[in-house]
Amino acid sequence: MRKKFVLDIIHLMIREEIKDEELLKHLQSIHKDEMTIFVMADGRVRGAFLNGTRLVNQMRANQHLGILETLVLGQAELCAALMIPTMKGRERVSLHYESNGPAVGFGVEADSSGYVRGHLLQNPIPVEKPLENWDLAPFFGEGTLTVRRMGEGMKAPQVGMTEILYKNIAKDLTHYFAQSEQIHTAFNTSIQFDRQGRVIGAGGMFLQALPKAGGKSSVKTEQVENDIDSKDDEDEELLMRVENAFSAMPSIGKWFSDGGDMEDVIYGLFREFKPTAVLNREIIFDCPCSAEYYARQIKALPKKELADILANDPDPLEIVCHNCGSAYKIPKSMLV
Fold first, then answer.
1. Which is one Pfam family of this protein (predicted)?
2. Candidates 3.90.1280, 2.20.25, 3.30.70, 3.30.565; CATH matching 291-335
3. Whole-prediction pTM
4. What pLDDT was estimated at residue 231?
């Protein structure tokens, strides 16, 4: 029986209201936001398919983003969300994409509990002429992609870094897994806008080859070596067929904007590999920030700096969380 995973952590982020009635009506008419995790090819490949239409719309509302900014940060947060199935226990993963292009980059974070948050390093992104397509390559330059994993009980994060090769967030993350973690992995994300610039569909897919089970034999024979070579050839052939099916995927954003179903893609696109959906889980744009958190941070400042704030800054203080856009008004009475 497929499991259902529901968020049970209460966050205090200020959720900006989406007031566009036409958009709200559309969101009610399409498949709900969720991630379906599946396995296929006799357990040799795992995957995740995500509808993140509401996630991207909430992110956009909270961060007050334009179309280009929504496209960049939306794709980044969809990629971060798709890394949740790779987490073990309570874990948090952050992606930092830094380049010398006009968009500069972003920092996004996903938590194993199911929330995603993040920010742009440049907002708004400077544009010299009207956009001709949705290719983000002109807005990124040379730079690095850094992935940090922080698990429960770890004293310091596990850090991996690769150079930006493709100026495409999903492709560069795929390259990171190949280089840093040496695992066959693929990402695909898509955001669909209507003619008025509304986000009417958004989502992504993740596939990953699972490591082989079993240990190494201490005794090698010609027959064993031939069997290993044959098995490796079979694995490569399987991955090539899976990759071909993955490449044939329709635009995910358009699929969800048209009311497409999650399982139609999973069981249709990968039918020859006999996929099995094992878990549905909720993924949302959220943040563990709060007014109380920021009040504690301010109170922990050096005494001289805190005294200067209390004497000279306006009351209440306004603090904006760069990861979710929440604006908190903190009365000075909370700081004494």
1. HSP33
2. 3.90.1280
3. 0.91
4. 61
